[in-house]
Design a protein that fits this description.
- The longest helix is centred in the C-terminal third of the chain and has 32 residues, at 171-202.
- By secondary structure, this protein is mostly helical.
- Helix content is 72%, strand content 0%.
- Mean pLDDT is 78; it is low at 1-14, 109-118 and 197-203.
- It contains 9 helices and no strands.
Length: 203
Amino acid sequence: MNRIGQPENQGEQAEAVSDACLIERAKTDPEAFGILYERYVDRIYSYVYYRTGNHADAEDLTAKTFYRAMQHIRHYQERGLPFSAWLYRIAHNLVANWHRDRGKRQVVSLDELHSLTVGEGPERAAERRERTETLLRVIRNLPPERQELLILKFVEHLSNAEIGKIMGRSEGAIKSLYHRTLLSLREQYEELEEGGLLAHEQE
């Protein structure tokens, strides 16, 4: 049995069922919603974790996301975007409320990037870690909406249209924000890199 009480082979058979069919069934059949849950829970959890930075809150907000989705699935209407965009939008709103209630800045948690150094030589690994730390400092200093854009783009691999749906912006606005974000990232990263080089030279 899997974590929602379905036989494992049923989960495998569900892979062949389209989201559209499952959504229609889920409006009256809780088991169909359970298959949708299994299909998307890991992606939603990953998104929430990167937005919150800790596992306990990510688990709680992921559960709330699917509970809210289950409550409103009867009113869901397909609008040319994947079902996942609707789930991300729900998670986006819950995370925004979570940050507002705590009155703290959104933080991108990308600790997994350090695993990229495994298997490298000590000098190469140290250089990679230093560059990663610099990039993370830049990302954490970005406004919350730009942090979220980078997560949706590079972690979740969503399209501009899907990101626009989640963030409540047009596809054109997302393209513009993405361009400005990359320029800002490059400028800030280069400034930090230059500052680091100067510090090493002065030592």
